[in-house]
Amino acid sequence: MGTVVLPWGEDETVSLDLPSSWKLKGVREPEAPPASLDVAEELEKALAAPFGSPPLEEFAGSARTAAIVVDDRTRPTPVHKIAARAVQELESAGLSRDQMTIVIALGTHRDMTEEEIEVRLGKETASSVKVINHRYENPEDLVNAGKSRRFGIPCAFNRDVMNADVVVSIGCIEAHEQAGVGGGYKNIMPGVSGPDPIYKTHAFKFQKPPRISSSGMPKSKCRFRQAVDDCGELIGDKLFIINTVFVRGFVAAVVAGDPIKAHDAGRAIYERMAGIELDGLADIVISDARPLDIDLRVSLKSCFNSSAALKKGGLFICVSCTEEGMGDLRLPDRVPVFAKQAIKAIPLNVLAPLASRINVSPDQAAGTISLLRMLRSFKRMLFLTGMEEGLDTFKNMGMEFFTDKEKLMDRARELMPGGEVLVLPHGGSSFVCWE
Predict the structure, then answer these.
(1) Which end of the chain, N or C, is less packed with Cβ atoms under 10 Å?
(2) CATH number at residue 351
(3) CB 60 within 8 A of CB 161
(4) 33: in domain
């Protein structure tokens, strides 16, 4: 059949020998950004010609306080290359560093450590500007902002963000399993919001996704993205975004300016480069999680991205180095060994409330529902990973994990002796196009 070569971490690759009884349907991957693209140059272009907004220095001209909102370690945004430049722009507008606060848009994720913050922001920026981790469940850190216009969702946001005269949001535009694509107002909701909009929008009944994942879903159809934008606009017209368009693990473009107009411009670039056109579904999908391969929790998002390419009853294989292990997964240590049979037999409308109860985090509850939908629809999910510990919960749900690629492929051949295979070498950075 042949060999496919896939990314393994940042600099390595892994080769998989495909069974001779499988037929290669194709290898589909996003368009590669130009090798010569320089992020610093693209950033300067974006700041010089923002979408729907004056340049940042002018935009912040009358401000006396500023909040710089940055996404956290689970996103590939090169924050260290952008935050320092944003600080300079604010200084040119007359603000001192004592008048600025950097807020880590954690949503419901864990706090970033001091060491992680220093790496993410750069040592000089991290040491010269106040930095805080947003905590969505602490009422003292929140200020009410009213209700969203379309869905009437009550919203509260981080106090430093609400009280700032100007807010600069640094994030990235990439496939997102609930919002269609990330970026724009998403650093505001759920990034620095209170619990109400997070719990409301992460509910399966609210999103009503026609696929397992909403990755790449047009905004006109994506209730989650509509809610993100409606909630985000409640902080007022003081937001200036700087978003990198991220494809195949690299920055493909930088956009800046108005949170809707700049985001729409960046999204158009991303969709053109990262959308995968299919000529039918495959019996087997091999998807590499890169660049969402930092840990198992984030890698599952890449599986959701690629799930639309697989036939019902098909075999799904995920390749991810998972260098940080399980990541910020907060699931029971163990589920019953008969869980895989129960997942297939119990209706989803019964399983969904259970997922909400066993997950302390609403975003993980939403991810669990997506995972349950995959396990119900497909024959099996196999993983080639760099981790061996802490997997009993997932094994009992019907997922299988391998650190040996030959054993992985032996098991895959046993489960699916023949069929058409589709390979997605950058499953974490692409999405299956919508009609």
Answers:
(1) C
(2) 3.90.226.30
(3) no
(4) no
